[in-house]
């Protein structure tokens, strides 16, 4: 059809035309795509850099008409007598492209999706926002959607449009503040970002997708369209296995790992292992060592490797450092195949200030607080999530569910909980804003945790949540219905601090600090606790576990053996950071590997064998599990022998059907004929002594010890034991 230029641009004002040309127009669908004008259909496309465009009939493939140049900047228009299905044939300087018109498609997101996003209750956010490879009206492509309610214009940019923000501006769905666009013929693997013009007309640095499921490995920062093909899991038996409660009642021994530094390939540029290699080496190792779970320091995409992942920006994307999302799923699948659960450290407290990330995402404080007294964390130079905003709460909860549901992860350890619970955390007077009642408690964070844990436990009955909470906040592991936060387990930071403080002292001074080792049992059952010897204890000049120990080399190893065994005998689930099980001499370096070469030395190999045997005994003995969370499963055998620095614990199975005696001698002096009362008459069998020669000890053992009718410690019968120097012994009692 021969149509005048003025007719092709009918209804478009001068300002609107220039806004489109300059990439400032916030409603591109009002100009681009097909429009009914005066009894004909006018199709407009904006393709800066194109030499010519043809309108092609989608059914026959024939050329209907060439487009006219409506503006020399790259605006083309064509008219047809009636509306029809069409494609575009675009002539670029370096080739020809045939594609459907992104502006020929209707609304993409449903009103329910937008409503749930606004409410903060859209828990499948990665299937709605972000980049989703899919088909629309039978056409394959990628649907992009991003929450940016205060933006004037949002475009998706990538290699597919030469990163030109003028080419693919998006449609705003006002009710949800979400911008959307379907781009035909794109597929997984495409790199992309969002280009945003704020309400004041400023073009912001191009932003990575907050809900991207894949990202470039740092230092690159683009998001990647992830595959929509479901991963083929083989862990049905594991996922249908014991419930969360059954697993909580059993042995939980966690091997904490930084994926990038567990093992490095020295002959290949000191590179980290990828997920497939970790599944082949880390998983069998953890299984052989008897750990029940691997806990990974945050593997969500993060810009700075030196943060160890604790300053993430891609809360839905496994970091590209170790492979693809499918590779990570394979790693989890292999863990489950080996009978090992996977726990991820997860950080909903704060995020870094990188300009391409979440900071002032649409030109406003969208994810963070506007006021720095609420929104900026000076300790870490990070921004704090605004938990008073529904969309932000929903974003975080959807992130948690992403790992538990899409990747079959067995638990999340929530980092820096205390920093979220207190408005004055690490702030001086006048540097924080009280809550609505004038208090220091962050009421929004409290409600967030209650809601988070309730949703997780409802939707993911297999999953546990663990709080790293360093204060005495009450009810961390109580259900929300009882006023608690709803976590399953809390890290016992107090026990960790007290016990390390004690064991680092020269034995000659330990008698004066005996209560440090017994104090933890005063509050041991106020929460469900995990005893953590984590990465935080072997960095920043704190030294390794081995170098914390006093004395000469033999005493250092003996102290460490005794301490680890005391930990495994003490109520509470267990966590040990990688390298601790081999008595790594130096503190952790995230740019290097665990010092595996020390296993050439018998003393280090002895520590490793001990940890393996402790895990084995813990897993075999119900008596060492039941008292973790149930006070009726624990008694002090002796708690007041400060003079000799001896501690004795009795652990019981349910109904006291079996028992284990754990005795520690924290001095270098052997104790012969040490009498200790026991609840059952009969033969007590020594299962582990850390002084055994196979562990590097001197070989003082008890073997089988018969009780004698001599009262001690309030019990009618007792044992006469040999307590080796700087050692812990486990003896299994007779059946009652």
Explain what you see.
This protein has 736 residues and is α+β, with helices and mostly antiparallel strands. A hairpin with a 2-residue loop joins strand 1 and strand 2 (40-46). Helix 6 (275-289) packs parallel to helix 7 (325-337), helix 9 runs parallel beside helix 11 (443-459) and helix 16 (553-569) runs parallel beside helix 17. It starts with a helix and ends with a strand.
Task: Kindly report the oligomeric state of this protein.
Answer: single chain
Name of the CATH superfamily of the domain at 111-225: Immunoglobulins
The overall strand count is 38
Strand residue content: 25-35%
**Structural class of the secondary structure composition?**
alpha+beta
Shape: elongated
Mean pLDDT: 96
- What is the fold-level CATH name, i.e. the topology of the domain at 111-225? Immunoglobulin-like
* Rg value: 31 Å
Main sheet makeup: 8 strands, parallel, barrel
Stretches with pLDDT under 50, minimum 5 residues:
none
Query: CATH class of the domain at 111-225, anyone?
Result: Mainly Beta
Strand order of the largest sheet: 16-19-22-26-27-28-29-30
In short:
It comes from Rhizobium lentis. This is 1,4-alpha-glucan branching enzyme GlgB. The protein has 736 residues and is α+β, with helices and mostly antiparallel strands.
List keywords for this structure.
736 residues; Immunoglobulin-like; 8-stranded parallel beta barrel; 6-stranded antiparallel β-sheet; 18 helices; elongated; cation binding; 1,4-alpha-glucan branching enzyme activity; carbohydrate metabolism; Glyco_hydro_b
């Amino acid at each position: 059809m021969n149509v005048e230029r003025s007719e092709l641009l009918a209804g478009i004002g001068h300002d609107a035309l220039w806004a489109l040309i300059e990439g400032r127009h916030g409603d591109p669908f009002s100009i681009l795509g097909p429009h009914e004008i005066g009894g004909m259909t006018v199709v407009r496309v904006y393709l800066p850099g194109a030499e010519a465009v043809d309108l092609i009939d989608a059914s026959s493939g024939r050329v209907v008409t060439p487009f006219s140049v409506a503006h020399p900047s790259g605006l083309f228009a064509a008219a047809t007598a009636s509306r029809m299905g069409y494609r575009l044939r675009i002539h670029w300087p370096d080739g020809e492209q045939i594609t459907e018109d992104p502006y020929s498609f209707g609304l993409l997101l449903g009103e329910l999706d937008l409503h749930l996003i606004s409410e903060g209750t859209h828990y499948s956010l990665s299937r709605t926002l972000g980049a989703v490879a899919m088909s629309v009206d039978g056409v394959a492509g990628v649907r992009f959607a991003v929450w940016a309610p205060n933006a004037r214009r949002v475009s998706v940019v990538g290699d597919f449009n030469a990163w030109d923000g003028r080419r693919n501006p998006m449609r705003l769905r006002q009710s949800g503040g979400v911008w959307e666009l379907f781009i035909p013929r794109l597929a997984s693997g495409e790199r992309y970002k969002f280009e945003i013009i704020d309400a004041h007309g400023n073009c912001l640095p191009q932003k990575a997708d907050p809900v991207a499921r894949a990202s470039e490995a740092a230092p690159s920062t683009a998001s990647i369209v992830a595959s929509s093909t479901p991963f083929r899991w083989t862990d049905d038996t594991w996922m249908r296995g014991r419930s969360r409660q059954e697993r909580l009642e059993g042995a939980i021994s966690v091997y904490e790992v930084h994926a990038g530094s567990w093992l490095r390939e020295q002959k290949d540029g000191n590179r980290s292992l990828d997920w497939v290699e970790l599944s082949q080496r880390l998983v069998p190792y953890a299984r052989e060592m008897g750990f029940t779970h691997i806990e990974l320091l945050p593997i969500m995409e993060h810009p700075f490797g030196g943060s160890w992942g604790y300053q993430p920006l891609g809360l839905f994307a496994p970091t590209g450092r170790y492979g693809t999302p499918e590779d990570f799923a394979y790693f989890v699948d292999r863990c489950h195949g080996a009978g090992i659960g996977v726990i991820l450290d997860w950080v909903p407290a704060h995020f870094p200030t990188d300009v391409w990330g979440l900071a002032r995402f649409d030109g406003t404080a969208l994810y963070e607080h506007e006021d720095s007294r609420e929104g900026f964390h000076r300790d870490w130079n990070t921004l704090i999530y605004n938990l008073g905003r529904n969309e932000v709460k929903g974003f975080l909860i959807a992130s948690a569910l992403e790992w538990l549901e899409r990747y079959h992860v067995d638990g999340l350890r929530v980092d820096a909980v205390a920093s979220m619970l207190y408005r004055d955390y690490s702030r001086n007077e006048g540097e924080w804003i009280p809550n609505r009642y004038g208090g220091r408690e962050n009421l929004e964070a409290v409600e967030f945790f209650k809601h988070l844990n309730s949703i997780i436990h409802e939707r993911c009955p297999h999953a546990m949540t663990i709080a790293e909470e360093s204060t005495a906040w009450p009810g961390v592991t109580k259900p929300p219905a009882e006023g608690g936060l709803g976590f399953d387990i809390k890290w016992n930071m107090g026990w960790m601090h007290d016990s390390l403080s004690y064991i680092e002292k020269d034995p000659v001074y330990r008698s004066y600090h005996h209560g440090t080792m017994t104090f933890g049992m005063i509050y041991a059952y106020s929460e469900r606790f995990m005893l953590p010897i984590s990465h935080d204890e072997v960095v920043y000049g704190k030294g390794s576990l081995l170098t914390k120990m006093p004395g000469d080399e033999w005493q250092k190893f003996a102290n460490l053996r005794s301490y680890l065994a005391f930990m495994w005998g003490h109520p509470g689930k267990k966590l040990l950071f990688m390298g601790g099980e081999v008595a790594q001499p130096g503190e952790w370096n995230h740019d290097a590997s665990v010092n595996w070469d020390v296993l050439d030395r018998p003393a280090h190999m002895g520590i490793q064998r001990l940890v393996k045997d402790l895990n084995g005994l813990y897993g075999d003995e119900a008596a060492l599990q039941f008292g973790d969370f149930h006070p009726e499963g624990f008694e002090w055998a002796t708690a007041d022998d400060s003079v000799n620095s001896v501690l004795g614990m009795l652990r019981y199975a349910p109904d006291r059907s079996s028992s284990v005696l754990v005795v520690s001698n924290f001095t270098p002096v052997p104790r012969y004929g040490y009498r200790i009362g026991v609840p059952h008459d009969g033969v007590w069998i020594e299962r582990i002594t850390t002084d055994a020669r196979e562990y590097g000890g001197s070989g003082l053992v008890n073997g089988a010890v018969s009780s004698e009718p001599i009262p001690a410690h309030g019990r009618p019968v007792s044992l006469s034991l040999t307590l080796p120097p700087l050692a812990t012994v486990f003896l299994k009692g007779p059946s009652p």
